[in-house]
Structures
1.
Amino acid sequence: MRGPMFDDQRFIEQALYISLGKEESIVQNRLVAAGNINQGIYIETADSGFFLKVNFEQNLDIFEKEAAGLELMKENTPLKIPEVYHVGRIADRNFLLMEWIFSGSAKRSYWEELGLGLAQMHMATRPSFGLDTHNYIASLVQDNANQISWSDFFVEKRLEPLIGKAYYEGLLDLDFYKTFQSIYPRMQEIFPKEKPALLHGDLWSGNIMCNEMGSAVFIDPAVYFGHREMDLAFSQLFGGFDDRFYRAYQEVFPLEPGFDLRVPVYNLYPLLVHLLLFGKSYLSGIRKTVNSLL
């Protein structure tokens, strides 16, 4: 189904010229995504296709971080990552121009290649958990200040900022806020000790695509160096990943025993993200996990 046209042809022309250094003959454009912050536009030119993201934020930060995350993944996985052409600003609008991924049917080895590609990316490591800069998961800031301990990082940089924000915004009461904080000491004993791994950071089925060649493509990352089980747990939260994906991953980079029991704990973070973005319907899942840890 065709989407509506983006109503500012001149903006598209300028964005393409700034990004590519030449004028492009635009055949058509259409709006393919519209969220609270960003709009996504497909641009067809005489020679190629492009994906243009646009927002009205005060600075380029959110697009700069996305571009950096895509580049970091590209350096560390054989999986396809969209090419970034430019991040810029025209008048009061920021933009990110990337290649358009033409979709196709998954080839027979799609899920195995995805599992192997993620495992290879998770083998990229560094001494500490975090990243050299903050970035975003959806529109929420991720504090990536470096820490040596995963359990400390998970509590201080992932759980506490979001549960505190949820309390401040009236999404939960003080009693549950304190109850939530009471599980923090348990984190020291839950997670197996592993080196920091490069994570996609927002790994649900909506953030992988299948290109014309039938191969998997990673999009919309929220990268940082964390515990690799975070990605695998997040992939189970909303489903959509074939068992072949997990089997292929395990063959290359086996998980420590008890992963299934740890999944709900890891998923406290994405559930808090969804609580803040979409409301109280996600609170019951958070309560269930917290109660299991008391």
2.
Amino acid sequence: MVVFLLALSAACCLGLGFVLQQHAAQRAPRADLLRWRLLLDLLRMPEWLLGTGFMVSGLILSALALNQGEVSLVEPLLATNLLFAMALSRVLTRQSLGRSGWAGVLLLGLGVTAFIVAGRPTGGGAPAGELRHWLVVGTVVGLTLLLVSMARRLPLFEEATLLALAAGLLYGLQDALTRTTTLRLDHDGLDAVLRSWQPYAVVAAGVVGLLLVQSAFEAAPLRMSLPALTAAQPITGIACAVGFLGDRLRVTPGALAWEAAGLVAIVVGVVVIGRHPAMPGSARETVAGSDGPPDGPPDGRGSCNGNGAADGAEGSDGPGSSDSTGSR
């Protein structure tokens, strides 16, 4: 029960933090995209600092949950952060939940329940050796670099989704390495932890992931980035936990079928909720009076306002016409 409460509290803090961070990041200069200067600019925004405070609280709570339970149990619960993000967005946008919103909530809840009940995640397996650690870490880092490289060749909207996917991969890896670090701290003490590479990898993954996700928040509305981030993190975390932490899931044919169905339901529910009109940047959101980004895009791409419309797009026929993607 303690693990459930910690994980859901962490999800609540993360969801609220993501919404506040995105509201601030969309006002950052476009020239800062994927540059460390972006974080320096965001540090001057009180709304972003408040969102970061929520996010840090969520990370601390998730670390406590990971210390008490297996990654494959905690990660699906952390995916519910989108429900809390939607709740805050609903207050900001005054949109009712509607059929699609309830469908997404139901799918996400059933997916988390099905995966946990069918998989019955347990620990106790022998942790993998250093070689497998490095193979799994190298695979995740390689996929992250590939996604970032691909994102830089795409228009802003598609770039935001790939950057969020890349951040989700790093956050999932970070969760698994956090579990490794807390286990070593419990068994071998602080001195052994400081002499290992895992805690420094946790910090590195967190910092790079923060840059990627803030760039995704800056590039496009939240609905283009948060679903991808929320879906990628638990899947990566579970894969890493099984890969090198010794987490065990039931592997009977029936259990595997329900586990797969649960993961699919989680992903679909996340996407449905992320595309709901209550999420910031949806086509029906009112953004009158909002400030646009101070600077134009560095690569000649159309800059996106809160509705996903391109500001100053050439060749538009009127207020209702927009080109939401620019070209590199």
